Amino acid sequence: MRLCDFQQKEVINACDCRKLGYVADLVFDECSGCIESIIVPKGGKLCGWFGDGGEYVIPFCCIQKIGPDIILVEVHEEKHHRQK
C-alpha cells in the first residue's frame, strides 16, 4: 500500500464514531522501516490549512481495520492531539 492510498481513506474513531479526517503523513521507524504512526490534521481541513494547526498522531497499533474507504482507529482523542 502506498501513502497516496492512505491519504484517500477517511479516518474514523471507533470510540465515538467521529470522523477525524484524512491521513496527511506517516511516521516511520528508521531502523525497521515499519510505520509507527499516522498523522491526521485536526478537523480534516485540507492538510491542516484553515484549521487550528493541531493534528492527531495515531500510533499504528491503534488501527483496528483498513477498509476500501476508511481507516478505523481506536483512540482517546485527548491523548493523541498535539499542536504544531
From TrEMBL:
Transmembrane feature ranges: none
InterPro entries named in the record: PRC-brl_dom, Spore_YlmC/YmxH
Superkingdom of the organism of origin: Bacteria
Annotated organism of origin: Claveliimonas bilis
Short name of any one Pfam family annotated for the protein: PRC
Protein's recorded name: PRC-barrel domain-containing protein
PANTHER family: SPORULATION PROTEIN YLMC-RELATED
Location of the PRC-barrel domain: 2-78
